Each structure stands twice: as C-alpha cells, then as structure tokens.
Amino acid sequence: MQCITATNWAREIEKRTGGRVKITIYPAGSLTKADQCYEGVVKGISDLGMSCFAYTRGRFPLSEGLDLPLGYPDGMTATRVANTLLAKHRPAELNDVQVLYVHAHGPGILASKKPVKSLADLKGLKVRATGLSAKIVEALGGTPVAMSQPETYEALAKGVVEATLCPIETLKGWKQGETIRYVVDASAIGYTTAMFVVMNRDRWAKLPPDIQQVFTEVSQEWIARHGAAWDQADREGREFVTQLGREFLHLSAEEQQAWQTAVQPVLDEYVKAAQAKQLPGEAFLADLRRELAGSRGAR
Asked: What is the pTM of this model?
C-alpha cells in the first residue's frame, strides 16, 4: 500500500506538470538498498528517495526522536506530527537534501504466542525487534532478537521468537498473524517509524520555480494521504487477525503507566545523546509530547 501511495504521488506530479516531469520508480531497493537510499540521493545515484531514518541509526540524531515510544495513536497523527516537528526544528542533519515530506506508521503493538497482560509476563520473552524497538523490548524486560521482517514468520512459527513488536498492519502484510495467538495493545508506549521522501539538492535547485511549487504542493497534500494509507493498512491488519480468531488483550491503566515508566530510560538516552552532539533533543522531545497531547485532546 505504501508503494502504491508513493507511486500515486509521482504520477500526480507528472500530471500537474503536464508531463514536464517524468519519475521512474525503482521499488524494493532495486536502485539503492533501503539503508543506502538517503546517501544515494545525496550522491546523485537517484534524484529522489524514500526510506526510513531508522535504517541508519546515528545518521539522524535529532530526527530519530520521531520514533520514540511516546504513545502515537495512529499513522495519521504520527505523520502529521513528524512533518510539524521537522518543519519547526529543521535539523541540520537533513541539509544535504531537499525534504519533500515524511510519513510514519501507526503505533507498534506486541503480537505474541503467549498472553501478555503485565510487565511480569514480558520478563525474558523472546521478542523480534530491531534498532529502537530492540531498546524498547529490553526496557520492558523482554529479550530482543534482531531479524528482518521476511525472517519473522518462520521464526515465530518455529518458536525461535515468541513475539514481535510491530505495527498491526505487519500481521497481514507479512502474514505473521497466522503464527501468533494474542495481540497486545501497547499503544500507551506506541512507537512509530518515520520515513523520508527527499530529493537531491542540486537536482532540486535546477528545477524551474513552478515545478518546485508543484512538488511542494503535492507533497503537502500527500502528508494526509500517506497518513490515511497507514491507518487503512492498520485497519486491514486488525481485520485479518480478527478473522483468524486472535485474542486482543488490553492493558489496565496501572499497567499502561508501568510500561510508560519502564521505557522512560529510552527517552532519557535520546536526550542525552542529542545533548552530547549539542542538539536540542530535550526541546524536540517536549514539542513531540505537546503535539501528541494536543492530538489526544482533539479527539
């Protein structure tokens, strides 16, 4: 669905420029691998690129704050907040490209073969997680096991891992819902994964102003469209596991607070690492929390 949404963005730009712009899409890392996509744009291997900040941890020390376990309620909110924060703080780490927009998935949930109703149930549980999500699992008392999404189905089926931390859309997209029995609502600490859509700076500078304006306008419209696409994918994932008869577990208010307290060191570590690089991590995190609180208040 994300590839389709990105393709529609490209086609809309072609349409509004009257064909003056033609965008050739290379999906699934066929031009540059996912973790090399950003540098590929910087170096001009590709004019445009879409991938995750998280694939090159440490490369985006301020922007990585977008992925923290702050309780994102849905993909639309995560996408809106991500664009708002980057527009306000304009991280210098992104100065070597033209940022068109970013988008982000809905809250990570815990899909498990065993019931998890408390932090005690998580202790020692082998959970598929990578990057930031591995830190979250560790903070919660679980045992993170790093692996890619394509490997996760078989690992769950064979018991190599007992659970996975992921957005619920993954349970349909990668069929992982077939291998688990419980879906634990961990939205109290819901993390996201922010994904960039960027252009090579030299290529951008050579575009006529009216073409630049089309890119800007379409990208602004696609913030909402991509957020909606993530929410639709989550709805389909929920429907998929519901049809499979999987049990949904909801944490008590006390447990939600306990989970939030448990992951606080992950937030503290982000602020400390940002400060060490003389970056405003504390202000960035405060703005994130303020935006999310405002979103909850508007509901």
From this structure: 0.96
